[in-house]
Design brief:
Layout: H1 2-13, H2 23-36, H3 44-47, H4 55-58, H5 65-77, H6 83-90, H7 98-131
Protein backbone atom coordinates (compact mmCIF):
# COMPACT_ATOMS: atom_id res chain seq x y z
CA UNK A 1 0.00 0.00 0.00
CA UNK A 2 2.78 2.43 0.73
CA UNK A 3 4.39 1.65 -2.64
CA UNK A 4 1.18 2.63 -4.44
CA UNK A 5 1.08 5.96 -2.60
CA UNK A 6 4.69 6.67 -3.56
CA UNK A 7 3.98 5.88 -7.24
CA UNK A 8 0.84 8.08 -7.23
CA UNK A 9 2.72 11.01 -5.71
CA UNK A 10 5.51 10.68 -8.31
CA UNK A 11 3.02 10.74 -11.17
CA UNK A 12 1.14 13.84 -9.95
CA UNK A 13 4.21 15.86 -8.97
CA UNK A 14 5.92 15.91 -12.39
CA UNK A 15 3.93 17.81 -15.03
CA UNK A 16 4.08 16.83 -18.67
CA UNK A 17 6.68 18.78 -20.64
CA UNK A 18 5.36 21.44 -23.01
CA UNK A 19 5.95 20.77 -26.68
CA UNK A 20 8.29 23.22 -28.41
CA UNK A 21 6.63 26.06 -30.32
CA UNK A 22 6.72 26.05 -34.08
CA UNK A 23 7.31 28.84 -36.61
CA UNK A 24 3.60 29.51 -37.09
CA UNK A 25 3.18 30.21 -33.40
CA UNK A 26 6.23 32.49 -33.39
CA UNK A 27 4.94 34.47 -36.38
CA UNK A 28 1.49 34.72 -34.80
CA UNK A 29 3.03 36.10 -31.60
CA UNK A 30 5.00 38.68 -33.62
CA UNK A 31 1.82 39.77 -35.41
CA UNK A 32 0.02 40.15 -32.09
CA UNK A 33 2.83 42.30 -30.71
CA UNK A 34 2.78 44.45 -33.86
CA UNK A 35 -0.99 44.91 -33.62
CA UNK A 36 -1.04 45.73 -29.91
CA UNK A 37 2.01 48.02 -29.99
CA UNK A 38 1.83 50.05 -33.22
CA UNK A 39 4.42 52.60 -32.04
CA UNK A 40 7.00 49.96 -31.20
CA UNK A 41 9.25 50.73 -34.16
CA UNK A 42 9.10 54.52 -34.31
CA UNK A 43 12.34 56.45 -34.23
CA UNK A 44 13.53 58.02 -30.98
CA UNK A 45 13.43 61.52 -32.52
CA UNK A 46 9.66 61.21 -32.97
CA UNK A 47 9.28 60.50 -29.26
CA UNK A 48 11.77 63.13 -28.06
CA UNK A 49 12.12 65.79 -30.79
CA UNK A 50 14.90 67.63 -28.97
CA UNK A 51 17.22 64.70 -29.80
CA UNK A 52 17.25 65.80 -33.45
CA UNK A 53 20.27 67.91 -32.46
CA UNK A 54 22.22 64.66 -32.09
CA UNK A 55 21.04 63.23 -35.41
CA UNK A 56 24.63 62.61 -36.46
CA UNK A 57 24.99 60.14 -33.57
CA UNK A 58 21.50 58.64 -33.63
CA UNK A 59 21.03 58.17 -37.35
CA UNK A 60 18.12 58.75 -39.67
CA UNK A 61 14.74 57.15 -38.99
CA UNK A 62 13.92 54.12 -41.09
CA UNK A 63 10.84 54.13 -43.26
CA UNK A 64 7.97 51.92 -42.19
CA UNK A 65 8.18 48.70 -44.20
CA UNK A 66 4.41 48.31 -44.62
CA UNK A 67 3.99 51.89 -45.84
CA UNK A 68 6.96 51.52 -48.21
CA UNK A 69 5.50 48.29 -49.57
CA UNK A 70 2.11 49.95 -50.12
CA UNK A 71 3.80 52.88 -51.82
CA UNK A 72 5.82 50.69 -54.18
CA UNK A 73 2.75 48.66 -55.14
CA UNK A 74 0.79 51.84 -55.77
CA UNK A 75 3.59 53.19 -57.96
CA UNK A 76 3.61 50.00 -60.05
CA UNK A 77 -0.17 50.25 -60.46
CA UNK A 78 0.02 53.95 -61.26
CA UNK A 79 -1.93 55.06 -58.17
CA UNK A 80 -0.76 58.07 -56.18
CA UNK A 81 -0.06 57.80 -52.48
CA UNK A 82 -2.93 59.28 -50.41
CA UNK A 83 -2.27 62.21 -48.10
CA UNK A 84 -3.28 60.14 -45.07
CA UNK A 85 -0.40 57.71 -45.62
CA UNK A 86 2.02 60.61 -46.13
CA UNK A 87 0.88 62.20 -42.87
CA UNK A 88 1.10 58.82 -41.11
CA UNK A 89 4.69 58.46 -42.25
CA UNK A 90 5.57 61.94 -40.98
CA UNK A 91 3.69 61.62 -37.66
CA UNK A 92 3.39 58.03 -36.40
CA UNK A 93 1.28 59.12 -33.42
CA UNK A 94 -1.70 59.45 -35.77
CA UNK A 95 -2.12 55.69 -35.41
CA UNK A 96 -3.21 56.20 -31.81
CA UNK A 97 -6.39 58.01 -32.85
CA UNK A 98 -7.96 61.38 -32.28
CA UNK A 99 -8.03 61.23 -28.47
CA UNK A 100 -4.29 60.76 -28.03
CA UNK A 101 -3.42 63.44 -30.59
CA UNK A 102 -5.87 65.88 -29.01
CA UNK A 103 -4.26 65.15 -25.62
CA UNK A 104 -0.75 65.79 -26.99
CA UNK A 105 -1.91 69.04 -28.62
CA UNK A 106 -3.55 70.13 -25.36
CA UNK A 107 -0.40 69.41 -23.36
CA UNK A 108 1.78 71.31 -25.84
CA UNK A 109 -0.57 74.30 -25.82
CA UNK A 110 -0.71 74.30 -22.01
CA UNK A 111 3.10 74.26 -21.87
CA UNK A 112 3.29 77.21 -24.27
CA UNK A 113 0.65 79.12 -22.33
CA UNK A 114 2.31 78.52 -18.95
CA UNK A 115 5.68 79.53 -20.38
CA UNK A 116 4.23 82.75 -21.75
CA UNK A 117 2.39 83.56 -18.51
CA UNK A 118 5.45 82.90 -16.38
CA UNK A 119 7.58 85.15 -18.58
CA UNK A 120 4.98 87.92 -18.53
CA UNK A 121 4.58 87.61 -14.75
CA UNK A 122 8.33 87.47 -14.09
CA UNK A 123 9.34 90.43 -16.28
CA UNK A 124 7.97 93.21 -14.02
CA UNK A 125 9.53 91.61 -10.94
CA UNK A 126 12.90 91.36 -12.68
CA UNK A 127 12.73 95.03 -13.72
CA UNK A 128 11.91 96.04 -10.13
CA UNK A 129 14.78 93.95 -8.71
CA UNK A 130 17.17 95.45 -11.28
CA UNK A 131 16.38 98.98 -10.11
CA UNK A 132 18.02 98.29 -6.71
CA UNK A 133 21.78 98.02 -6.29
CA UNK A 134 22.43 96.04 -3.14
CA UNK A 135 24.59 93.47 -4.90
CA UNK A 136 27.27 95.64 -6.44
CA UNK A 137 29.66 93.03 -7.88
CA UNK A 138 27.16 91.44 -10.26
CA UNK A 139 27.66 87.80 -11.01
CA UNK A 140 25.65 86.66 -14.04
CA UNK A 141 22.01 87.48 -13.28
CA UNK A 142 22.26 88.53 -9.63
CA UNK A 143 20.88 91.97 -10.37
CA UNK A 144 17.57 90.40 -11.45
CA UNK A 145 17.09 88.42 -8.21
CA UNK A 146 15.29 89.31 -4.98
CA UNK A 147 18.57 89.57 -3.09
CA UNK A 148 19.46 92.71 -5.05
CA UNK A 149 16.83 94.63 -3.06
CA UNK A 150 18.96 94.33 0.04
CA UNK A 151 18.16 93.29 3.57
CA UNK A 152 16.51 95.06 6.47
CA UNK A 153 18.56 97.79 8.11
CA UNK A 154 18.36 98.96 11.72
CA UNK A 155 17.86 102.60 12.47
CA UNK A 156 19.28 103.53 15.88
CA UNK A 157 18.49 106.85 17.47
Amino acid sequence: MSKEKVEDSEQTSSPAPNPPINNLQINYAKELIELKHPLRRIHITHVWPFLKIFSCCIGKPKRNFNLALKNSLRQKLGITMPKSDTKLEQNPFLRMGYGMNAYFDLIINLMKMMGFISVVAAMPAMVIYDSYSSLTPYVMFDNFMLGNMGGASFVCA
